[in-house]
Amino acid sequence: MFSRPSSSSGAVKVRVLATDNPRVLPPELQALLDGTDAASRDAAWAALVRSHNGLLLHAVRSVFPQHDAAMDAYTLVLERLRENDFRRLRTYVADGRSAFSTWLVVVARRLCLDHHRQRYGRTPRGEHDVAAAEQQRAARRRLLDLTASPLDAADIVDDASGLADRELRSAELRHALDVALADLTPADRVLLKMRFEDELSAQEIATALGWPTPFHVYRHLNALYAELRCRLVARGVMSSAP
Amino acid sequence: MPDEDTNIAHLSAERLASYIDGNLTPAEHNTALAHFDDCADCRREMTDARRVIALAPPAHSEPVRAPTGSRRVRVWVAAALAAVVVFAVVPTVLRNRSGPDGATRGPDRLPQSETVSQLATVAPVDDGAITPASDSFVWRAASADAEYRLRIMDATGGIVWSTSTVDTSATLPANLRLPQGSEYFWSVDALLADGHSTTTRVHHFTIR
Do residue B62 and residue A59 have CB atoms under 8 angstroms apart? Predict the structure, then answer.
């Protein structure tokens, strides 16, 4: 439904650190990969860790907020990066596609998430599914409230026998919303999922999608609500009330 | 690598990092978005990684230079300007904190260690040169919903230009003429959603 907003240059704004050119290996990594003896590689490794330890600690703490667990995970990340003659670090290619710091954050976080799974196990499937389904239902309910007209007082029927009808109506509303959502582009659905399922702020969504400001998010969301409202009305849905 | 529970093949680290840096081709970008639509794990991984990158301190790959004579002068000027900013900000904060009855009306300022670890300038680097028409001032986000004020100051501490934004970058307006080779200073104030405020230290730059 909408195209990605562009910056003045016509491309999505990319914030690259001045010291982190995606086409140039960081000097410490270059020295590490070029090292011909253990001593020079050790010195380069120490320099690499020194220059990136703040970034690595932030990445680790984003998965393990507790200090002791974070320190364990930090040690593990360093071990994994170092093992097999820096095998993982050697896979990074400075081809302009991603900055080393971005790549390092993604790799470090994935190592931490693997460690988290090994240490604590996955959430039990049944419990996870129930919680996820409940969360998804709540998200769709909020979305439906925003896209369908509010409840008219005249529609309220104080009748316990109407319970079955309401459940049927709820199912119909969910189905109508699913159909309307299915017609949207993946980008539109990602935007709605970030807002309603992931419950991200407009600023976080703008950053995640590379949009200039949170106002772009609000504008697109409002346009999407209007679009969904039209589609629901076309399907005979006039109210979000079950 | 397929997820052992859902059997969905997740985005590779390289692809995810390229998406975050905005360097995928349009076709790759659309494929990634379609994957984020199906895969909540990768979607959250992307947003979490972005958050880490936005809040983490920058890597220090540049060699540290010993101050030269002219640089030492600039450091003193920057320190003096920082003092100007502090004296300009502190009375405002104090006014917010205490009314006539002495009650605290405004929020307490964050401890310095917290503020420094979050709000930080990214570009131009200290003592860097910029081309006003094409270069932007970039800083790291202080928090998700912060508002920022960028100040450009001359050597006397006078405000040459300032702007407020919710973004973490700003470009000088085209009608602002700054002579080639002239020296200026910049800093960013952040007003956080919870009412706290914080500021960066003052940085020096020249006009290319």
Answer: no
